[in-house]
Input
Amino acid sequence: METIVVRVEAVRREAQHVHSYELRRPDGAALPPFQAGAHIDLHLAGGLVRSYSLTNAQTERQRYVVAVALDAGGRGGSRCVHERLHAGTLLSIGPPRNHFPLHEDAGHSVLIAGGIGITPLRAMQARLAQLGRPWELHYGARTRAGAAFADELQALGAQVHLYFSDAASGRMDLARTVQAAPAGAHFYCCGPQAMLQAFEAATAALPAERVHLERFAAQQAPALDGGFVVELARSGRCLPVAPGTTILDQLLAHGIDAPYSCMQGICGACETRVLEGVPEHRDSVLGEAERAGNRTMMVCCSGARSPVLRLDL
Ligand code: FES
Output
């Protein structure tokens, strides 16, 4: 798995329970380029790997900035980041990947964020502003104190709309926001599950190529029925996938160095080419057309509809 060693240059408090982490190479050299919407994996203590969106402008080549909300009820990644990463800490990261790309030539872009979902959209806003393309941002959070970057974004002007559940501004009306957008606009959403569901409902009648979203959590349960065989094309090895396990479980159990991060079908790290067979897709990364094409699959959560899957591994 390709990794880059970086040092935490600065930790900043961006809101209640939200810290941002500025990461640079120890020698100050440029980092791999990225596009707005991209995320990186942080390799944390105890073998934890977690993906976080890059929130700084893509024109910045010397640093990556991620913002992490402490999730007390989460799987431990955010707690590990908050407790263990300090200015000066060295850590390994994965290179940027982007499953939430910005369509830079859109006539208008509507950016919709909930809570810490603001992070990739902040990078998109910076890119659109740099290109001089029209955009608007709708950003909802439970409280202003918990909304990272709220002051900075509000200062950008009237195209920024903030909504706080505990304030008179009230809740975001996604259906009205979508209806009011100029014809041909592209829509982007990142936030909690309930917001993404409302976003999907509000944009259901629009062409899929103008609707873009990124999830924090798995939408579907992993395929654990097992009962099929994975053939690794590069070595010819065949691994049976037993009930209750995933393909990735089997790969790791057999010492195969397969890339992975979230293990929930949301980050795309484990995307693998399918050479033969039919996957049972359970991820939130591939679009409908990509699923139907069956050319790749996420091995951390997807299974098989055919008795054998031949994979490019
Ligand atoms: S490891 Fe994240 S999608 Fe599979």
About this structure: The chain has three domains: 4-93, 109-214, 228-311. The mean pLDDT is 93. The domain at 228-311 is CATH 3.10.20.30 (Ubiquitin-like (UB roll)). Residues 118-131 form the longest helix (14 residues).
